[in-house]
Amino acid sequence: MYPEAYKYTNDHEWILVEGGQGKIGITDYAQKQLGDIVFLDLPETGKTVAKGDVLGSIESVKAVSEVFSPVSGEVVAVNTELAGQPESVNKDPHASWMVVVKLSNPAELGDLLDAAAYGELAK
Fold it and tell me: Which pLDDT score is estimated for 55?
């Protein structure tokens, strides 16, 4: 259910790292808990974040939830198309990346969960 190539956080974010950069989004579990997503508040490119910092927020018909950065680095891309169609997160959360962060400390990836461990957490 959860893509094997991704890493996961206890806060239900995912990161897919390729070439020193990580695409970040929320998991299927998170979108199910939120319900129908109606708005995304995403950061500007160039923003520097530390692991655990708030990247932005997701608003659903039920609640507003913060999105935390699973790694430290610089925001190098923001998915503006997704911001214009936030309901896409409900349709395919593991393909709906929100931001790309250029990692400043790749060792932090070792603190994240693999797909099997996250699957246990999300039960």
Answer: 95
Pairing of β 99-103 and β 73-78 = antiparallel
- The residue extents of the domains of the chain are 7-121
pLDDT per position as a tens digit, 39-88: 999 999 999 999 999 999 999 999 999 999 999 999 999 999 999 999 99
CA distance 83 to 89: 10
Q: What angle do CA 34, 76, 53 make, to 5 degrees?
A: 50
* CA distances in angstroms from 109 to 25, 95, 116, listed in the order given: 15, 20, 16
The rounded distance, in Å, linking the Cα atoms of 83 and 85 is 5
Question: Which tokens in the block code for residue 9?
Answer: 């956080």
At position 56, the amino acid (one-letter code) is G
Architecture per CATH, domain 7-121, reads as Beta Barrel (2.40)
